[in-house]
Structure to design on (368 residues):
């Protein structure tokens, strides 16, 4: 059971939502204004908020922005719903900091399904929501693949208040553990060496390094070693999907046959590119390569990561070259080297930085 705060000045809607949420096993907390809602956040510590847009004195957009400014509420799930359902309304809601947006004309079961999805695995599995596996990839090194994977994993874990699995598939000395400040004693290699009939989500959990955010890391090996002839990565991720609603993969730049076999089953692949000509050339080649090996083009999510302060190619020119829209542009962040040195993901080291804000916005849009 979760505490759900509802902020709406329409009493009929409040009664309907209260009934639907109670029937779904949750505890609704009813308020009729933004000011009352902000007060309830401090008093009732809700697990999720549902807020209308059009309210007197304070709109749902302004309410959401004020919630995000409260200490410790950066990742509290917020569902904005409204009688307005133009694309611009959804985008404005996400820009304000909402986790999701739904029109009011949807049936209550659809709202409950979205609520359960936002709350995490215990609720989402009951509603039949499939586990998501999201990979980060680029042909070119140095564009921020691991930075993207680590920070998204932390955002998902904190926002959904649920463990998230991050797997570092780099064959040797991947940097995910470094960025999380972890020193794993075991690695992916130990899991792949297990007998074929012993792979299960519960068994794999014993090989995961746990971060305070809720991220659980399956690290890459730190020393050279020979991988088993049959990697069985598909079996591994099938096992992980039974225990984690979100699985993030830090992909290597070169994919072997076992890694290529994962592509068709991905929910999304985040294609990370820097705003320069070599990275753009690599991105064009990567899109062709990925689609040739079974990844649907509509699952490729390009994101522009400004990894230096040097002059950048225009976003429009990049989109025209890759023939896909850029999902987000992450600004250059001078604090990133210090965050890595401290063993902290950027979203925890400098949560109010422009790059951290852009990453949080991208994460919210990614799981719509």
């Amino acid at each position: 059971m979760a505490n759900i705060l509802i902020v709406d000045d329409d009493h009929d809607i409040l009664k309907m939502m209260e009934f639907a949420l109670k029937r779904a096993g949750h505890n609704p907390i009813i308020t009729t204004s933004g000011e009352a809602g902000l007060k309830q956040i401090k008093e009732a510590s809700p697990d999720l908020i549902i807020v209308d847009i059009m309210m007197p004195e304070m709109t749902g957009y302004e309410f959401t922005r004020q919630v995000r400014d409260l200490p410790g509420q950066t990742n509290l799930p917020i569902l904005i719903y409204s009688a307005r359902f133009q694309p611009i309304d959804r985008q404005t809601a996400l820009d304000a900091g909402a986790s999701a947006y739904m029109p009011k004309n949807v049936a209550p079961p659809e709202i409950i399904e979205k609520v359960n999805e936002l709350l995490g695995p215990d609720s989402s599995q009951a509603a039949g929501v499939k586990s998501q596996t999201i990979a980060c990839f680029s042909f070119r090194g140095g564009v921020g693949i691991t930075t993207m994977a680590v920070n998204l994993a932390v955002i998902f874990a904190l926002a959904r208040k649920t463990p998230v699995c991050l797997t570092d598939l780099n064959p040797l000395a991947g940097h995910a553990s470094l960025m999380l400040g972890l020193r794993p004693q075991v690695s992916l290699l130990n899991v792949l060496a297990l007998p074929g009939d012993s792979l299960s989500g519960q068994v794999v959990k014993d090989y995961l390094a746990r971060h305070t955010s809720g991220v659980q890391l399956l690290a890459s090996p730190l020393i050279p070693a020979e991988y088993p002839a049959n990697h069985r990565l598909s079996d591994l991720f099938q096992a992980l999907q039974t225990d984690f609603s979100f699985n993030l993969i830090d992909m290597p730049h070169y994919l072997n046959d076992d890694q290529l076999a994962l592509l068709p089953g991905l929910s999304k692949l985040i294609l990370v590119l820097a705003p320069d000509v070599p990275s753009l050339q690599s991105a064009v080649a990567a899109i062709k390569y990925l689609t040739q090996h079974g990844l649907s083009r509509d699952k490729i999510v390009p994101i522009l990561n400004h990894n230096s302060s040097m002059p950048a190619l225009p976003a429009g020119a990049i989109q025209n070259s890759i023939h896909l829209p850029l999902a987000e542009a992450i600004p250059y962040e001078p604090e990133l080297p210090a965050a890595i040195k401290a063993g902290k993901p950027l979203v925890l080291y400098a949560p109010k930085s422009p790059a951290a804000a852009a990453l949080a916005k991208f994460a919210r849009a990614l799981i719509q």
